[in-house]
From TrEMBL:
Keywords: Membrane, Transmembrane, Transmembrane helix. The keyword Transmembrane applies. It comes from the Bacteria. The chain crosses the membrane at residues 6-34, 46-68, 80-102, 114-134. It holds the Pfam family SpoVAB. The lineage of its organism: Bacteria, Bacillati, Bacillota, Clostridia, Lachnospirales. InterPro entries: SpoVAB (IPR020144). This is Stage V sporulation protein AB. The keyword Transmembrane helix applies.
Length: 138
């Protein structure tokens, strides 16, 4: 009985480590962190940014697994939602940029004039969706 439980724990932890490593390498490979450092002219702090992303992932998992209550959670949830939405949006844009998705798509449907409006619409839609999601407590 104990052997099965120990084996399941080892497999679960190993799988989690592999998936987390893959996710963080994808984030680094897409260049999201280096783009942030480049745009803010703080390239010398890139290792700190990478450590912050890894620490955020680790702490997020610990809080989720052990159901740790965060004091002031009522006002931190919207802040987390906004920051998480910004990060996911930048991640999606970096992936799309890497795949050259937008230039090909925009040339095909011939809407180059409306690109700023499309990007603003996507950002507002994600923001309102996150606001509704967090305000309803889903």
């Amino acid at each position: 009985m104990w052997a099965v439980q120990i084996l399941m724990a080892v497999i679960g932890l190993s799988s989690g480590i592999v998936v987390a490593g893959g996710l963080f390498s994808l984030i680094a490979g897409l260049g999201v962190i280096s783009d942030f450092a480049d745009r803010t002219h703080t390239g010398e702090q890139i290792l700190l940014y990478e450590d912050a992303v890894a620490l955020g992932g680790i702490l997020g998992n610990i809080f989720f697994i052990y159901q740790i209550d965060i004091p002031g959670g009522d006002w931190l949830v919207p802040v987390f939602g906004i920051l998480g939405g910004i990060f996911v949006g930048c991640w999606a844009m970096a992936l799309a940029e890497m795949l050259n998705l937008f230039p090909v798509f925009l040339r095909r449907i011939k809407i180059l004039r409306y690109v700023p409006h499309i990007i603003l619409g996507i950002a507002l839609g994600k923001g309102f969706g996150a606001l509704i999601f967090f305000s309803q407590g889903w």
